Amino acid sequence: MQRTQEELRAIISKFVVYGDYLVSVPFGNGNVNDTYQVTYDQGGARLHYILQRINHSVFKNPELVMENVDRVTAHILNKIRQAHAETKKRTIRLLRTSDNCPYVFDDRGNCWRAYIFIEHARAYEVLETPEQAFKVAEAFGEFQLELVDLDGRLHETIPDFHHTPKRIEALKEAVRNDPAGRVKKVRKEIDFALSRKDEAGTLIRLNAEGAIPERISHNDTKANNILIDDLSGDGICVIDLDTVMPGIALYDFGDMVRSGTNPAEEDEIDLARVGMRFDMFEALYRGFLSTAGGFMTEAEREMMPFAGKLITFEIGVRFLTDYINGDTYFRIRRPDHNLDRCRNQFKMVQSMESQFERMKKLLLR
Ligand code: GN1
Ligand code: MG
């Protein structure tokens, strides 16, 4: 939905921001929330903020999302402050209202929050080198490490977010209902998904049996959710904290493998360009262990290659389900966008399957 400058200005004005509002422009490539970059003038300096509407059909309880984000960012900020004064490490910093609340509601019931924009750093849609992959994984691993000592349990803001068997059930239901009449077009993709349903419950099962522990996970560790410092190339800030909640460390590693090893974007149509780059997998593996290795158990490490395959498969299933349902969840920017995404992810799954033995051999070294 398009919003006018007046509307956006009115919303961000509810937060404590010094200076004069200049302009808001749409920002980033999110599939769920609406994001703007806002510019203020403060005594001749240009200050930037991120203003975001939480999609409340996806996040049914935005207040709980904000409570999680607030707790997590405060915890990390504390650690950054205790660390070396020169550190470039950052965390998302929420703006607050004069009542000290980190979000506001507009008159249509939408929940908004705002952040300080982090300068001199950027997010990469496609990772370019193994060194960069190492740094991205190192930063996501450090994020988990920082949260190991967070007191209390976070809210489960989207229950069963990475419950792959339930994602398959949702696909089956969509196929049964066929609300957009698209099932006939995607028989091949449905068969691809259903023929792999047996191993889909592996991580959930290991967790239920106690073999793999619950931790705090980010749950959306796409490569582009790390800001990379322009100068040093280091991963300096984890962003997009909406799905931070109780989970399994391997979900985060898996989603990193899904996006970080793909040489093309997740909606690339030319599937000849899509496939897992082994050197990137190896760099992600080593980078993640360089920070998360201290707390990860043997059982978790063992499942790292599998997690990459599983999470890629799961998101492919979600894109397919949304396509069949008539594109009600993910934002689409062209017709068949969700189908293109699904095919891309399934091509990645095939590529991982064919390199799986080699991925597992890394564990032995
Ligand atoms: C969604 O909106 P974005 O891009 O941050 C989705 C993730 C998917 C991702 C695929 C809450 O995240 O789970 O992996 O798209 N987020 C939610 O690009 O469903
Ligand atoms: Mg996200």
Record keyword descriptors for this entry.
single chain; 365 residues; alpha+beta; five-stranded antiparallel sheet; three-stranded antiparallel sheet; 10 strands; globular; binds 2-acetamido-2-deoxy-1-O-phosphono-alpha-D-glucopyranose; binds magnesium ion
Distance between the termini: 51 Å
Assembly status: single chain
Which stretches are low in confidence, meaning pLDDT under 50 for 5 or more residues running? none
Q: Could you estimate the helical fraction of the residues in percent?
A: 40-55%
By DSSP, the count of extended strands is 10
What is the N-to-C order of secondary-structure elements (H for helix, E for strand)?
A: HEEEHEEEHHHHEEEEHHHHHH
What small molecules accompany the polymer chains?
2-acetamido-2-deoxy-1-O-phosphono-alpha-D-glucopyranose, magnesium ion
Specify the number of helices: 12
Structural class from helices and strands? alpha+beta
Strand content: 5-15%
The largest pleated sheet is described as: 5 strands, antiparallel
Radius of gyration: 20 Å
The best one-word shape is globular
Give me the side-by-side strand order of the main sheet: 1-2-3-5-4
Nearest-integer average pLDDT? 97
Compact description:
The chain is α+β, with helices and mostly antiparallel strands and 365 residues long. It contains twelve helices and ten strands.
Describe the structure in your own words.
The protein has 365 residues and is an alpha+beta fold. It is built from twelve helices and ten strands. The model has no long low-confidence stretch (mean pLDDT 97). It binds 2-acetamido-2-deoxy-1-O-phosphono-alpha-D-glucopyranose (GN1) and magnesium ion. Residues 30-32, 58, 220, 222, 240, 243, 266, 315 line the site of 2-acetamido-2-deoxy-1-O-phosphono-alpha-D-glucopyranose (GN1).
